[in-house]
Batch of 2 targets.
Target 1
Amino acid sequence: MSLDHNKIELIMRLRAEGVRDTRVLEAIEKVPRESFLPDHLQDQAYADHALPIECGQTISQPFLVGLMTHQLNLTDRTKVLEVGTGSGYQAAVLSHVCRRVYTIERFHSLAKQADERFRQLARRNITTMTGDGTKGWPAQAPFERIIVTAAAMDKVPPALIEQLAVGGEMIIPVEYAPGRQELRRIVRTDEGFETERLLPVRFVPLIEGVAKDA
Ligand code: SAH
């Protein structure tokens, strides 16, 4: 079966599972997921599951990429911070439905590889940085939207909460008990913060500090 055919099947499946936002589905259609995968996994590019990438990390499941992008309520004027660049796939999808994406990865080799992919695909509205995403990106704060694609252990990093604009929203997986994670939306209002629990998920952990890869 060709990759194009598999991609159409995947998009129909995401729609059936509840990702009905046309802009998000169009973004998923535009981004070649195979470009974000190692060579030996090319044939699985449009299967709806997470896959292993370099540095022991994962590329997120397409359904979750679609759902999280939809849940962020983006417009073409929004500036987004992503924590956990990984392969770069989620950032590439975001870049089609918002104004600008700032993405941070703790493995330098992953950040560099993702940045090269963005260049090859002419995604000019993505800025990539190697760093500790639990500290956010102070020079670019505040952010109207923040998406974290690694699971916070129990507690949402305070720097990310501080860097959320008033009226802003954050989507973040939180491990609230051993092996139990849920996706949460945190909204910053004039008075404080509101938290909404979305669905059970499984992400690699959010780890403090920059990784020691070459
Ligand atoms: N959005 C990615 C998913 C990658 S998995 C994609 O579409 O492929 C989560 C990523 O978060 C991993 O690459 C991991 O190294 C990274 N990560 C974990 N803790 C981090 C931190 N404190 N700062 C930045 N990146 C982090």
Note: The longest helix spans residues 3-16.
Target 2
Amino acid sequence: MINIYSPATDFKPIGDQMYALVSTLFPICRSITGNGVRETLSHVQKLLPITVHEVPTGTPVFDWTVPKEWNIKDAYVANSQGERVIDFKKSNLHVLNYSTPVNQKMSLEELRPHLMTLPEHPDRIPYRTSYYQEKWGFCLSQNQLDALPEDDYHVVIDSSLEAGSLSYGEYVIVGETSDEVLISCHTCHPSLCNDNLSGIALATFLARQIEQVKAEGGKLRYTYRFLFIPGTIGSITWLARNQTNAKRIQHGLVVVCVGDAGKFSYKTSRQGDALIDHAAKHVLTSERESFNLIDFFPYGYDERQYCSPGFNLAVGSLSRSTHGKFPEYHSSGDNLSFVTGAQIAESLEVYLKVIDVLENNHTYINQNPHCEPQLGKRGLYGNVGATVHRPTFEMALLWILNLSDGSHSLLDIAKRAKMPFETIKQAAKALQDSGLLKQA
Ligand code: ZN
């Protein structure tokens, strides 16, 4: 048995560190390619020695092609007095992500078709992209647009769209077997906290926690692969370049939207009944009064690619609020005050508990299957299970002994007993130590 999750861990400082990373990354203008992604990955590298891969523009990846690299220095709309009325330096959301360069004088009427707002939230700047259609545009709040008078505007986008490369980060923790657990997060959104930065922070610190367990002598059953990739084109690129590695992925989670105050949500893998699906559902069932259980659908984040029929990997997605389902989604409302370190830390705890299930979900055989063994004479009744309520612990012992016939895993037993996996795991360890249980 290995403790990936430990009830003794103090998550407060980890939450603070994750929030600090989110705050550092917040101002950077990221996109699916470009220096913003590289700068983001270099900050992650200070905490975790990830490898950064560069895939050249024009590389075919399945039905797609790695696009031109986009970089931006500045962008603004200035009025006839030379005052910036829309300014990229104030928020990088103001520029349509992947805008082609422009430097032109025009009237408000000429500018208007290039302006995007969010009328239902008139004080927020929307986040919009145009990766595969070359155009330019600005995003601004409806209130800001309503206040713009007719004028002679100077429109500048100092960007470049040229041959370069797509950058992504990868980190592998080698376990006892080459069977892999995939943890994937996207790195392509500019100043948006819940949608992208919370996932980057959680993935980084999840890797550090697992690395620490290994460093302390824990024998990891699985090899862990962490991907920090641009959404869609990043997972397609990784899968195209790693078809052999992909075959080793036994379980996986796409980390998204883990920093807001919303209820936990689990979106199942396409398979629907994979171990990762059962593990996540059981952890959330035993932890939370309620959570959203979402059946797989072919939209959302990178699970769409991992669960495409040619791969059909057991990859689900564990989040708080979900893709497109919170009012702050893809707008300036998804900012540093929308997420907290404590909430990301709470999500990290859930991730650790799910991985704890994957690592420890073995099947055992009761060595004394004819009637109940006498637990008292083995010291198992009354004085063990210090971290678990005693009668609960004793019931856990009885459930494990009863169901350990070689055809029920510890997770099966936890589900049937309606007990947290942690309780079943501790009881199984006590039974194994007493010789009453052997791994099948
Ligand atoms: Zn998004």
Note: The CA atoms of residues 33 and 291 lie 35 Å apart.
